[in-house]
Write a structure and sequence with these properties.
Blueprint lengths: L10 H5 L15 E5 L8 H4 L5 E9 L3 E10 L2 E11 L1 E9 L2 E9 L4 E7 L5 E10 L2 E7 L9 E7 L2
Antiparallel strand pairs: 1-2, 1-10, 2-3, 3-4, 4-5, 5-6, 6-7, 7-8, 8-9, 9-10
């Protein structure tokens, strides 16, 4: 059964990825990223079982927007897929998660981070804070339930060289 993609719209995770910390110009996120399951914590009550694997391929990083594909796998094969091309100025745009259209807004948050907010037709919103821990590591703190407090999930992604 399809489930919501990891940090519903992992874009946020991608946007902070890069050696250039300036708030204009390419971010350096182009390429492939994989989830580090051992370094990540999941809230299975909110999102279902943790994936067996997840990979993000960033195909556009021009300083104005990013385009990416996320593929998440479980023991039955494809668990989730998403496609997006989002501006970095906070404007809302459409993205696809599994077979649903969702809305995403992504905005730079300081020199090496971003905040992304996603929502669907049912009104469910998720917020992600993402920052570059080092040139090859992204940290994602995801609020899935909208309740103030510590993040619902903390995810770590590693750059594939």
């Amino acid at each position: 059964m399809p489930r919501p993609a990891l940090p519903v719209l992992l874009a946020a995770g991608l946007l902070a990825a890069g050696p250039a910390f300036a708030q204009s110009g390419p971010l350096g996120a182009a390429g492939r990223w994989t989830i580090d399951l051992k370094a990540s914590t999941f809230n299975e009550a909110l999102t279902g079982p943790a994936p067996l694997a997840a990979e993000v391929d960033v195909t556009k990083d021009d300083g104005r927007s990013l385009a990416w594909t996320l593929i998440e796998e479980d023991d039955e094969g494809l668990a989730a897929i998403q496609f997006a091309d989002a501006p970095l100025d906070g404007a809302t745009t459409k993205a696809v998660v599994n077979t649903q259209i969702v809305m995403i807004s992504v905005k730079r948050d300081g020199q090496n981070g971003v905040t992304a907010v996603t929502s669907n037709n049912s009104g469910r919103k998720q917020t992600m804070k993402v920052w570059l821990a080092d040139p090859d590591t992204l940290r994602v703190e995801q609020d899935v339930d909208g309740v103030p407090g510590p993040p619902d999930q903390s995810l770590t992604f590693r750059r594939v060289k």
